[in-house]
Write a structure and sequence with these properties.
This protein is mainly beta. It has two helices and 28 strands. The chain folds into three domains: 93 residues, no CATH class; 90 residues, Immunoglobulins (Immunoglobulin-like), CATH 2.60.40.10; 185 residues, Sandwich (Jelly Rolls), CATH 2.60.120. A hairpin with a 2-residue loop joins β26 and β27. Bound molecules: calcium ion. The site of calcium ion has 9 residues, from loops.
């Protein structure tokens, strides 16, 4: 009699394989439904017991009769053995809700490969878009370590006092469904500040001389002005006439020799793109340019010349440092000719998007190697 009762109970078992989505009508949901078949419940009989099995992620639900609510069977895993006492119940599978689409997030600043001077102030910016819902937070990370959390757009975080090192940065955006998207990483480098252009605004001057700190000149004719400045309180005036050159006007360089790239500490500057620029004011046309020299076989790159308009013009030259580069130095160059007066201010060296700023403290004397190009040297990029 016992076995007949059990058999009848088994026959009452109704298995309903149902898959229903979680009510979303987004395109992503429809796509998921169309490409993934719903989980199917299979029934087998093993050693007198009913075993339910299924493939994939699904929640087993049960109810005592079809007019009652379906209830999750906690911890049910496939294969699931139905005890005889439960064999008169109804079972079905509930497909897991389709995964919510991830919000998209991109780190727009800093640009990957940027070099900063230590201690650096690095501004991280991100754009983030929720596919469903809204963005509730953007979190900025250095490697796996969170740096800051921003809840409103624009998503920006200033990371201050960053020491020397190489850093992988990324951002994560969290949306109102608590789904997190991750940006591609950005790598930046923070190096010793003294590697950059110093006293670019000509604010500090070497005691007892007419030279701005950290700058050198190939000739005399350098003076300080506080009345005709572009930035800050002072600018530099370069001037020459025949008396400076004992009867002729000489070429003049106002330059900084930054460092040797040939040493291992700076070898990774090879291949970096650097831009040297300065604001220049003169009435002498086609004689004043800014140059970069990297010491390679064709070392010089030049900006276009100042037009001689008498107004401030920003002269800029960009050079990708050769893989044979041995040094980095930058110069404001005045080509030999008639007498001239040239005012220069706000010189900058930008490396792959980061701006080198002058140090707050008075720099020591830079290591120097004075190499003035001969008139026959090749200069690329000159426009006249
Ligand atoms: Ca200045």
């Amino acid at each position: 009699m016992v076995s007949r009762t059990r058999t009848r109970s088994l026959l009452l078992l109704v298995v309903v394989a149902v898959s229903f989505a979680a009510g979303s009508s987004s395109r992503a949901t429809e796509a998921a439904q169309s490409t993934e078949s719903p989980p199917r419940l299979q029934i087998t009989r093993e050693k007198g017991q009913l075993v339910l099995s299924w493939q994939g992620e699904a929640m087993l639900q049960a109810t005592d009769d079809l007019s009652s609510a379906w209830v999750d069977v906690p911890e049910a895993r496939s294969p699931y053995t139905v005890s005889p006492a439960s064999a008169h119940r109804f079972y079905r599978l509930r497909a897991p809700p389709p995964a919510k689409p991830l919000p998209t997030v991109t780190l727009t600043a800093p640009v990957s490969g940027t070099i900063f001077a230590a201690p650096a102030t690095i501004t991280l910016r991100a754009t983030a878009t929720a596919v469903e819902g809204t963005i509730t937070a953007v979190i900025f990370f250095r490697d796996t370590q969170p740096l800051g959390l921003v809840t409103t757009s624009p998503y920006e975080f200033v990371w201050s006092y960053v020491p020397i090192g190489t850093y992988a940065l990324h951002a994560e955006a969290v949306d109102s469904h608590r789904v997190t998207g991750t940006s591609p990483p950005v790598t930046v480098e923070v190096i010793e500040r003294t590697d950059f252009l110093q006293n670019g605004s000509f604010e500090t001057w070497r005691p007892g001389t007419n030279l701005p700190d950290a700058w050198l000149t190939s000739t005399g004719g350098v003076s300080r002005t506080t009345t005709d400045v572009r930035v800050g309180q002072a600018a530099v005036v370069l001037s020459a006439n025949e008396s400076h050159g004992a009867g002729e006007v000489l070429d003049q360089h106002l330059f900084q020799y930054l460092f040797d790239i040939a040493d291992t500490q700076h070898a990774d500057w090879r291949g970096k793109t650097v831009t040297f620029s300065a604001w220049v004011k003169t009435t002498t046309p086609n004689r004043v340019r800014v140059w970069i020299n990297d010491g390679s076989q064709n070392p010089w790159s030049s900006s276009p010349a100042h037009t001689g308009s008498g107004a401030w013009e920003r002269l800029a030259v960009t050079r990708t440092l050769s893989h044979e580069a041995t040094r980095l130095w930058v110069t404001v160059y005045i080509q030999a000719g008639a007498a001239y007066v040239v005012t220069v201010d706000d010189a900058r060296l930008v490396v792959d998007g980061s701006t080198a700023r002058p140090p707050a403290t008075e720099p020591g004397s830079p290591a120097l190697e004075v190499l003035i190009p001969a008139s026959g040297d090749t200069v690329t990029g000159a426009a006249e």
